[in-house]
Specification:
With 287 residues, the chain is of the alpha/beta class. The protein has eight helices and 13 strands. Strands 7-6-5-8-9-10-11 form a seven-stranded mixed β-sheet, with helices on both faces. α4 links the parallel β6 and β7. α3 runs parallel beside α8. The chain is globular and about 65 Å long. It starts with a strand and ends with a strand.
Length: 287
């Protein structure tokens, strides 16, 4: 069974050893290991992707042991496996202002096109609270009066609702490195409202318009710590406009029609297990 382990906390000596020692002694194969040591922040982070043998005990026992190690070492340790439970994966939809992308995901879940459960909606603004109520999904606002998010609260909610995948559905904030590491291994999925890599940033429609582009698009990709989307792209699609089309009309087409469809298809590929993230790149399952 594939299991993802993440450990994050204040930097110190000997943090990785007890985790690696325990899983290897139990007979686990380590498929992938990533480590991060940020001197300026004194932050240590590690992600392991392992093959946990059936005869080594249930994942719940591994989780309990990892929690003990984390408590002893001052680390926040998470143990996650898509295969632990016989249920559809649980999603956290993270939002700011726009409703269209989250609405497309919730509609596809309701209609059976996306075999997942919307466990919770998390916003740094209240703009999507009514949408959550419409689909009977719990909503939590983690933003202050200026929309500044409380990321400790976000992590607690993701754990509380037993979330498998965190979906940034036009969530207009950059996640801090700590959150990215805590849910590393292909658990955070982002919709970028532009084509990557040529048009990153917060205003990709305007940037493409300044370059006299007639083709625009959106990109769904896995979030990886400290790296821009490149080999992490899950789905990318485009739409074309006629010369002279105003930027306002282009944005309207993108936001209302194109972005929601792009995100829904990207999530379907992940939920249906067509793709996974290995070594910071998207691979077809089984590769």
């Amino acid at each position: 069974m594939q299991v993802i382990l993440t450990a994050v906390g204040p930097d110190n000596r000997g943090l990785a050893d007890p985790i690696v020692h325990h899983v290897t002694t139990a007979g686990a194969n380590i498929y992938e290991i990533q480590m991060y040591d940020h001197d300026s922040e004194r932050l240590f982070a590690m992600m392991l992707r392992i093959d946990w043998p059936d005869d080594a005990g249930p994942v719940s026992e591994l989780r309990a042991r990892m929690a003990e190690i984390g408590a002893a070492k001052g680390l926040s340790v998470r143990t996650w496996s898509r295969d632990e439970h016989r249920r559809p994966p649980r999603l956290a939809l993270c939002t700011t202002y726009r409703r269209e992308t989250s609405h497309a995901v919730l509609r596809d879940i309701r209609d059976g096109r996306l075999k997942a459960t919307a466990a919770v909606m998390i916003g740094n603004r209240n703009a999507c609270r009514g949408l959550a109520e419409q689909f009977d999904v719990p909503f939590h606002n983690i933003g202050d009066d200026q929309g500044e998010p409380d990321y400790e609260a976000m992590a607690q909610l993701i754990d509380q609702y037993d979330v498998d995948y965190v979906v940034l559905a036009r969530y207009m904030r950059v996640l801090p490195a700590r959150i990215c590491w805590e849910f590393a291994g292909g658990r955070i999925i982002n919709l970028h409202h532009g084509l990557l890599p040529p048009f990153p940033g917060f205003r990709p429609y305007h940037d493409a318009f300044k370059c006299n582009m007639l083709t625009y698009g959106a990109t769904v990709h896995f979030i990886v710590p400290d790296l821009d989307a490149g080999n992490q792209i899950i789905n990318q699609s485009t739409f074309s406009v006629r010369p002279g089309t105003p930027i306002e009309q282009i944005i309207k087409i993108g936001e209302s029609d194109h972005e929601p469809t792009c995100l829904a298809e990207g999530l379907r590929r992940v939920v249906d297990r067509e793709v996974e993230l290995h070594f910071h790149r998207v691979v077809r399952r089984g590769e």
